[in-house]
Design goal:
Largest sheet: 6 strands, parallel
Distance between the termini: 18 Å
Structural class: alpha/beta
Number of helices: 15
Number of strands: 22
Length: 446
Amino acid sequence: MKIVIAGAGGVGTHLANLLSREKHDIILIDPDESRLEAPGSHLDLMTFNISATSIAGLKEAGAGSADLVIAVTSDESRNLTICMLAHSLGAKKTVARIDNAEYLNSRYQSYFKGMGIDSLIYPERLAAQEIADSMKMSWVRQSWEFYGGALELIGVKVRDNALILNQKLKDLGTSSLPFHVVAIKRGEQTLIPRGNDSIHPGDLVYFMTTKKKLPEIRSLCGKDSYEDIKNITIIGGGRVAVQAAELIPDYMNVKIIEMDEERAKRVTALVNERVMVIHGDGRDMDLLVDEDMKKTQAFVALTGNAETNILACLAAKRMGVRKTVAMVANLDYVGMAESLDIGTIINKKTIAAGHIYHMMLDADVSNLKCLTVSSADVVEFIAGEHSRAIAKDIKDLDLPEGATIGGIVRNGEGILVSGSTRIEGGDSVVVFCVDMDVKKLERYFK
């Protein structure tokens, strides 16, 4: 595919890095030449030092013949303009990064489509949704629902008390097992496990399961003592915090601690009455003690500084908070944050990348999610009536190395899979893959 990326900031550079590995024809443009130096020298792509709001510049960069134009500059209005101009020049699809949640309202979709903008990406809203979702289960690091909850993917950090340690997975495997282990993150490595692999203490294990089986997995992982979340403390009153406070379930109490007094006042005006906004330094241990941190089940660090967020979560852990979430903008810090065992890690760049990458898939794909700490993707495919994936045992599909089928949904019901499971036409199939081009999987389901 020919892809033009406008904006060589954090999101644009990360996307360029991700997509250039998959041998796409990438053109990265930015008016600041210094931003183009590193990606231009290290990645397989072309760079143009031009303004993307210039029609002549877009023509020079080949936007008119592009399969996809992605506008991810720091300015929302500029991104919308770039997409409109690119569409008028002939670009097949456009994506604009925005900063206004109001634009995501379904009633405006046709309006933006008419302007030539196919998709809107609001990274802060996407990050906030992941935070809100992570609050639903205190014992789970990451969780995703598929097909209205018919299947669930959960990431759980297993400790020494787990009942499923040091046993070969093939010895665990029975038809009544309440899960399918799709991946194991061990140190810096993410494994697609086979029958002879086992789970070790400290592993981050990804289980595919169904909602009714979650209590069984909780017990097997030794997490019954984890208290359900009722009280949440957030430090940092930026856009992600405001969006998260809106999305967190109403039965939970939320406190936002913001250091800047004027911003604290603005946040107070933006959130509903169940959210308490406190002007103060969220790193101040005395303040946290005064705010009854011992009664807090979840601590979320969303300041603009990754180091602050990591250290704050470590401090919260020492104070007895079991569920911690840190926003880490610098991808270089993600591995370090995971090694420190601080809890759930949120990175807006990888979340946005998953949503944009979705547009590039030709098969009938309803969703794609990037797992920040695991260099992995989870993709939902719809099996075609005459696709290669049907009428064979899953073990005989010869899937690429680094991919495994986690579960299927048939007639609205989630089904966990084994090697002898067969996919039928029309089934929704959830595939877990590590360090591979998702497009290689398309041919199995088209």
